[in-house]
Amino acid sequence: MALELTTQNFDEQVTNAEGVVVVDFWAPWCGPCKMMSPVVEELAEEMGNVTIAKVNVDENQEVSMQFNVLSIPTFIIFKGGQVVDQFAGAMGKDALKARVEKHL
């Protein structure tokens, strides 16, 4: 299951993390975000070596602004606490998984 992140636990779970972390910036009213939710959950189940997390942009605006999230869904991949990839828009599981696997 994807980890729910907030402004309070973001640094601990993401920027201070050693491995690869994929963060899905989403909102409950966003249609494409709703489409991506099961894809993100499937990835969380399949990729045990990667932390998959979600940030509700409505409830955590500071984090969204910090990473210049202007449209959703936006995915940011961190490795060793550093941003290594950032992209927006809905996509299939295989495409998302391929983007993540490039950073393993």
TrEMBL record:
Residues in Thioredoxin domain copies: 1-104
Active site: residue positions: C30, C33
Protein keywords: Disulfide bond, Electron transport, Redox-active center, Transport
Molecular function in Gene Ontology: protein-disulfide reductase activity
SUPFAM superfamilies found in the cross-reference section: Thioredoxin-like
Residues carrying the site annotation Deprotonates C-terminal active site Cys: D24
Organism superkingdom: Bacteria
Disulfide partners: C30-C33
One Gene Ontology term, aspect cellular component: cytoplasm
Site (Contributes to redox potential value): G31, P32
Similarity annotation: Belongs to the thioredoxin family.
Family matches, as NCBIfam families: thioredoxin
Protein name: Thioredoxin
Organism: Candidatus Uhrbacteria bacterium CG10_big_fil_rev_8_21_14_0_10_50_16
Gene name in the database record: trxA
